[in-house]
């Protein structure tokens, strides 16, 4: 499918995170974007917009590709439709988003207020008299759409900066006009990551160091602004940050646990090395096992997870066990439940055998 240049330009303007696709949130900004002072959109209008997005998302992957966006473009270009637009304060003023959208829909282009245009937007028509110049409607639509995209992107950026400044003021608890690592912690805590306290503390330090570009030990407004826009600006980027935090911290903990119990520094964990590691993670729960039953269980764990048949766990094999069973208190609790069930079933089997 060949996509027109003006459509590509609009797509890039709306693709705020540069992912190459448009999420529902990004498209909702076009479909149902309320303005300050205007009537809030109803739940019915929001649901209608979501249904419209689903109809455009042909492959059902939850985002619009540029081809899907191009197919939806005639509807999107018209902008949101509301019964009281004529009374909406946001519709006033040349250069406002609603004014630009209204101009795009005007059938009589001759009545349109003059806006800056490029020379490429002009064509000469012989029927209007010698040398007469007139705007080509398709070129004008492209010009106006570009203006609309610029205005919308600017307004969205200003809204994000306002949120960032509000967060900066909220977490600058000592009024130093900077954010320390201890002040950054509560902001990260809002993500409610399923990490141990020491893991969260470690990730705060890692994130803080990444954005403290001048090494001053605190984040200036400019440094905090970049952190906020990259990590907290939308639900999508917050989910991405949470996923990165989980992966990074659990991977770090797995490597540390592996190194601690790899007592012979061979780069693998034997059954004799894995046993103490599991005892440390499970704590008093291990008392459910006799010494022999525990040794048999550890040997079984290695047999099940030993993908290369070496008889030991390398770091990659151990990382799988760690991520599924030991990476958090919640996972350990579920692991213990499975082990209790296994012990119970094993006891019933012995009774039947006897």
Model description:
By secondary structure, the chain is mainly α. The chain folds into 3 domains: 5-109 and 136-155, EF-hand (Recoverin, domain 1); 172-235, EF-hand (Recoverin, domain 1), CATH 1.10.238.10; 262-353, EF-hand (Recoverin, domain 1, Orthogonal Bundle). Helix content is 60%, strand content 4%. The protein is built from 14 helices and 6 strands. Strands 1-2 form a two-stranded antiparallel ribbon. Strands 3-4 form a two-stranded antiparallel sheet. A two-stranded antiparallel ribbon has the order 5-6. Strand 3 and strand 4 form a beta hairpin. Helix 6 packs across helix 9 and helix 8 packs across helix 10. The longest helix has 35 residues, at 137-171. It is elongated. The model is unreliable at 34-38, 81-100, 106-133 and 348-354 (pLDDT under 50).
């Amino acid at each position: 499918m060949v996509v027109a240049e003006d459509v590509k330009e609009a797509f890039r303007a709306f693709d705020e995170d540069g992912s190459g696709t448009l999420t529902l949130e990004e498209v909702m900004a076009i479909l149902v974007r309320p303005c300050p002072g205007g009537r809030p959109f109803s739940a019915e209008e929001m649901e209608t917009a979501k249904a419209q997005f689903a109809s455009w998302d042909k492959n059902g992957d939850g985002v619009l590709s540029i081809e899907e966006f191009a197919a939806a473009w005639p509807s999107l270009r018209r902008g949101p439709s509301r019964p009281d637009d004529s009374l909406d304060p946001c519709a006033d003023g040349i250069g406002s988003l609603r004014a630009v959208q209204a101009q795009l829909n005007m059938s009589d282009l001759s009545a349109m207020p003059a806006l800056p245009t490029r020379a490429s937007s002009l064509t000469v028509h012989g029927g209007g008299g010698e040398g007469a110049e007139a705007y080509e409607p398709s070129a004008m639509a492209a010009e106006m759409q570009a203006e609309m995209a610029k205005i919308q992107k600017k307004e969205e950026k200003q809204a994000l900066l306002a949120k960032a400044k509000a967060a900066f003021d909220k977490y600058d608890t000592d009024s130093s006009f900077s954010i320390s690592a201890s002040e950054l912690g509560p902001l990260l805590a809002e993500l409610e990551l399923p990490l141990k306290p020491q893991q969260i503390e470690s990730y705060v330090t890692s994130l803080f160091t990444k954005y403290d570009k001048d090494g001053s030990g605190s984040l200036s407004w400019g440094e905090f602004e970049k952190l906020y826009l990259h990590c907290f600006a939308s639900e999508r980027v917050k989910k991405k940050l949470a996923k990165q935090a989980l992966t990074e911290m659990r991977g770090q903990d797995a490597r540390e646990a592996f190194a601690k119990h790899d007592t012979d520094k061979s780069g693998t964990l034997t059954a004799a090395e894995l046993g103490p590691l599991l005892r440390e993670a499970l704590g008093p729960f291990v008392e459910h096992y006799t010494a022999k039953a525990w040794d048999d269980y550890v040997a079984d764990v290695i047999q099940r997870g030993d993908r290369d048949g070496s008889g030991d766990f390398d770091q990659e094999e151990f990382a799988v066990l760690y991520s599924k069973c030991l990476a958090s208190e919640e996972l350990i609790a579920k692991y213990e439940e499975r082990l209790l069930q296994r012990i119970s079933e094993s006891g019933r089997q012995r009774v039947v055998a006897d």
